[in-house]
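quick one, 208 residues, struct below
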Amino acid sequence: MSVVLGLDVGTSGTKAIAMDASGRLLASALVEYPLHSPKPGWAEQDPADWKRACFEALAQLAGKIDTTRVKGLGLTGQMHGSVFLDADHNVLRPALLWCDQRTAAQCDAITETIGADRLIQMVSNPALTGFTAPKILWLRDNEPAHYEKVRKVLLPKDYIRYILTGEFATDVADASGTLLFDVKNRTWHRELMSLLGIDPDWMPPSFE
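---
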């Protein structure tokens, strides 16, 4: 019988499971990692910790199942976190997480620039501190040397997708929480990105 794997890049650790085609749990693993708060209200993680935990969790599963029966791997994870990559696809700085609160000024600036009602019309969300767009603007405003090197912005699970497959991609559910996604038309909102000065090429292709 075929086996499918699930991998969840969570806030406190990466969880992995193996199930058979009937939904029976065959094996599971959990590898934890720290959350860093260098200043009050800040929340960061090192994507290298996710990578290590991913490989360790999958290795634990491999010791418990017949890997020749594995037919696929599903990915999920914490939303809103921002991983900044340079032109060589190296991580520029620790990822800003969903619970990071440092971007209040950037949220106010987005709302003032776009207008609260228009922002809802464009991306179906108000500007909140957890979202990706204000994190990008925070990097521009506070770490310009890093900002100038940005070539890709990924969510946590999509960084792991890149590590495992070498491909950039996301899904519409995660993309909808970036404040850069046209939820109604299910595509990146290029007009909004232009107004905010964000390069649309930084965002990965999105899929259902």
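The two ends are 27 Å apart (CA to CA).
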